[in-house]
Amino acid sequence: MHEIEYEVRGFLTVRNDSLRVPLSGSLTVRLDPDSGRFDGDLVLHPATTVRKLFGVSLVSSTVDISPAGPVSGRMDDDGRMFATVTVDAIIAAANVGGLTLINGDTCRTATHAVVPMQSKPGFDLDQGGRLAGRYHRPPFTGCGRLTPLVNLLISGPGNAAVIDLIPVAS
């Protein structure tokens, strides 16, 4: 087994909108060089997004994306990395105009989201690089009276994930 550690930087988009949820964390990949298959442990830090109008914060939210299992994938003969991760999302906090609307860990996806990602040809595991993919975000539950609005705004198709894997020097 060949093990590689990466710093993760990237973002998620929300339903074809310009809103980007920043991603940061780490990924440890364990590769079987004979088969090209791998699994890995992904850790993502909570992220805060802010929407401003004329420089004033209108809406802010803190989102916690947590893997529901290991990342799995493979490398193909053209040097493309294919990876899949299953995640849960929690809206840990949401504020509008300074008023707290959501606080805690109950506003979360009702089921796991499956996020398939791939690189362009020529990906080098030792050098790292970019992976991207589109996915469907499941409905949210536990957001109180805001659950229908949350689902209208952020659940469904048209979401994207883009991450850069940056090797960590050992």
Shape by Cα distribution: elongated
Order of helices and strands: EEEEEEEEEEEEHE
Number of helices: 1
Give the strand tally: 13
Low-confidence stretches: none
Rg over CA atoms: 17 Å
Distance, first to last CA = 16 Å
Kindly estimate the percentage of residues that lie in beta strands according to DSSP: over 45%
Question: Biggest sheet, open or closed, and with what strands and sense?
Answer: 11 strands, antiparallel
Percent helix range: under 10%
What structural class should be given to the helix and strand makeup? mainly beta
Q: What number is the mean pLDDT?
A: 92
Estimate nothing, just give the exact number of structural domains.
1
General description of the model:
The protein has 170 residues and is mostly beta strands. It has one domain (2-167). Helices cover 5% and strands 64% of the residues. It has one helix and 13 strands, in the order ββββββββββββαβ. Strands 1, 2, 3, 4, 5, 6, 7, 8, 10, 11 and 13 form an eleven-stranded antiparallel beta sheet that branches. The chain has a two-stranded antiparallel sheet with strand order 9-12. A hairpin with a 2-residue loop joins strand 7 and strand 8. The longest helix is centred in the C-terminal third of the chain and has 8 residues, at 147-154. The chain is elongated, with a radius of gyration of 17 Å. The two termini are 16 Å apart.
